[in-house]
Amino acid sequence: MPSPSAVPAPPRFAAFGRYLLLERMATGGMAEVYLAKHFGEGGQVSDLLAVKRILPSLAADADFIRMFLDEAKIAGQLEHPGIVQIRELGRVGSSHYLAMDFVWGKDLLQIIRRCRLLGAQLSPQLVAWLGAHLCEALHYAHTRTDKRGAPMHLIHRDVSPQNVLVSFDGRVKVIDFGIAKAASRSTHTQAGVLKGKVGYMSPEQVQGKRIDHRSDLFAVGTCLWELLTLRSLFARENNYDAMENVRHARTFPVQKLRPDVPDDFSAVLDRALAGDPDLRWQSARDMKEALLRFVSDVDPNFDRVSTVGWMRDAFRKEFHLERGRLEAFDQLGRP
Description:
Layout: E1 14-16, E2 19-27, E3 31-38, E4 49-54, H1 56-59, H2 62-75, E5 86-92, E6 95-101, E7 105-107, H3 108-118, H4 124-142, E8 164-167, E9 172-174, H5 179-185, H6 190-194, H7 203-206, H8 213-229, H9 239-247, H10 263-272, H11 284-298, H12 304-314, H13 316-331
């Protein structure tokens, strides 16, 4: 999730229904995200939360709002350590919002940019470990059933570096599950959704074909390839060029840019990035197990603590500055 100081904060705290918006963390094509606290009846005060408030420009788009609410209600049923939990879906005036758990950490795009800045590379075992836990969360969602036991056929549709968080306590968290479906159906948001996102679609998604959970696995392969190489696989300045790259699955072995990546890991990525869904990993669990086998073979001692160490070292300055700021925010309203 974006750092609490990444975007200039409003001049003072702002009341928003039962929430106190403490600081704006990010602004995107669909919403603004705020660090917030919830004040309940009887003086109860929540832990820090993230409130995603839909932009006013979309509030009048009835079709978008309807689908956004439908998808958000479904996403709110997902309870897994690897998926950011939605706590409330509501409206204050004409502003629709989601309140969800706040994750203190960085997204994969921020991690890639930090590596570029430092002139450093992520180890294959760290990338595989992150990928395995991403796949674990996706498998939970992909195999989710409703109250009657019928498959829900949930697909994230937007597995991209901005939507995968790594917390400072070493946990991988997925955000915005299913929200891309609502955005892609609205003429008001299509351009904003496509911009920068085409490079993380699957070939069948770009072609407008029916997709299933294997589309998400293609996107996982793209994210892991980019974590290793620190460069874009499909994305280009021109959306058409990016779409053509994805449509034809124009990729190449990661070892051309990272000769140190073992064959076993390269093979996992090659399979994930197959243009034909039938040639990919057929489940997120299978891909996860392959990634964990690789980590175990290369570095049996690699675990969450290893990830904590890397995150706090790479973002040392931010970690210490943000910790004090968040502790102060957390005490607001407490006796």
